[in-house]
Amino acid sequence: MKNLIKLGFAALLSIHFTTATAQNKNTENENSLLWEVSGNGLSKPSYIAGTFHILCNKDFEIKPKTWKALHQAENFVMEINYTDQNEVLAMQKMMAADKKISEQLTPEEAKELDKLLADYGTSLKNVDSHSTQALYSLIATKAIPCPPNEVKMYEFELLTEALKNKKSVNGLEKVDDQINAIGQSYNLKEVISQLKLSNEYTIASQKMTEAFKNENLKSLDQLIKDPKFMNKKQEKLVLTDRNVKWAEKMPEIMKKQSSFFAVGSGHLWGNNGLITLLKAKGYTVKPVSNL
């Protein structure tokens, strides 16, 4: 169960203002999950790759252009640096809560949740000491249409290659940043409401997988930001606010080393996506069809 929750949490961590509309029009029909960042004083280009945190083996593919971009870069940057043991410990700590879930519910609500959790292969008793964020991560474990031993984690495959090629490895944020973003976005009642949408998540996951395989960034963006799963407040906390912070950090990282950034695909598109935010800072950001 603990490994499943960690997988699910990674999958879920796994915008709409009017500041850069003209730039979005320029990229509206350009399908790519790999983008080159150049100009604005950079001596070498860097790359941003949109990822799909967890995929079944049968759907998993990292395109040749993505491998080439990684090999050309000197530095590999994920959302979180999983080679940092402090981050791994923080992930483990995230799973526990100070107050049991059952203590935050009425007896009727607890009974309803226990029945709901049976569909996720567990029970309230098994997860009672877990955090709200850990409970939320169960959604992803059910949405993935294959057992845990048949999945691959996109970033970890890239990380393995980066380490093999002796790239430096860094993160854009800390585990605590992600935990806080999800904690502020979804309280216990909202998480339970999301757990009830398991069938919708499964359907959405299948559509997202196809969009990802086709590099259809615009469709992916629409699916990720479906109001059923993410209201405007949640979108701001989980995506927009984090994008803004990352876009502030990325220039200094790119200035020091040519870097390959691997982030969830939902962080790329839109007026507050990384593509637009970096363009607004004066960088040339263009889709890569091949290298």
Automatic annotation (TrEMBL):
<protein>
    <submittedName>
        <fullName>TraB family</fullName>
    </submittedName>
</protein>
<dbReference type="GO" id="GO:0046872">
    <property type="term" value="F:metal ion binding"/>
</dbReference>
<dbReference type="Pfam" id="PF01963">
    <property type="entry name" value="TraB_PrgY_gumN"/>
</dbReference>
<keyword id="KW-1133">Transmembrane helix</keyword>
<dbReference type="GO" id="GO:0016020">
    <property type="term" value="C:membrane"/>
</dbReference>
<keyword id="KW-0732">Signal</keyword>
<dbReference type="GO" id="GO:0030178">
    <property type="term" value="P:negative regulation of Wnt signaling pathway"/>
</dbReference>
<keyword id="KW-0472">Membrane</keyword>
<keyword id="KW-0482">Metalloprotease</keyword>
<keyword id="KW-0479">Metal-binding</keyword>
<feature type="signal peptide">
    <location>
        <begin position="1"/>
        <end position="22"/>
    </location>
</feature>
<dbReference type="GO" id="GO:0004222">
    <property type="term" value="F:metalloendopeptidase activity"/>
</dbReference>
<keyword id="KW-0378">Hydrolase</keyword>
<dbReference type="InterPro" id="IPR040230">
    <property type="entry name" value="TIKI1/2-like"/>
</dbReference>
<dbReference type="GO" id="GO:0006508">
    <property type="term" value="P:proteolysis"/>
</dbReference>
<keyword id="KW-0812">Transmembrane</keyword>
<keyword id="KW-0645">Protease</keyword>
<keyword id="KW-0325">Glycoprotein</keyword>
<dbReference type="InterPro" id="IPR002816">
    <property type="entry name" value="TraB/PrgY/GumN_fam"/>
</dbReference>
